[in-house]
Amino acid sequence: MPAHLKSSLLGVSLTLPITNGHFNLGIWQGIYLCEPRDSAGERKLVVTLQGESRPL
C-alpha cells in the first residue's frame, strides 16, 4: 500500500493530554503502533512537548 494512502487512513501524528505526569486517557483508550509492512526497518520516534511547567 502506498505511503500516502496509509497516512490518509491511519494519520501521521497524535496528540495526547498529560495531567500530573501521566497520560490522560479514557478507560478504553490506548496507544498502538501499526507497521503495515512485511519487513520493517528501524524507526525513530519524535516527541514534542508543549505546555506549562509547574513546581513540584
Automatic annotation (TrEMBL):
Name this protein carries in UniProt: Secondary thiamine-phosphate synthase enzyme
Domain of life, per lineage: Bacteria
Species assigned in the record: Shewanella violacea (strain JCM 10179 / CIP 106290 / LMG 19151 / DSS12)
Lineage, broadest ranks: Bacteria, Pseudomonadati, Pseudomonadota, Gammaproteobacteria, Alteromonadales
SUPFAM superfamilies in alphabetical order: YjbQ-like (SSF111038)
The family this protein is said to belong to: Belongs to the UPF0047 family.
Transmembrane intervals: none
InterPro entries: UPF0047_YjbQ-like, YjbQ-like_sf
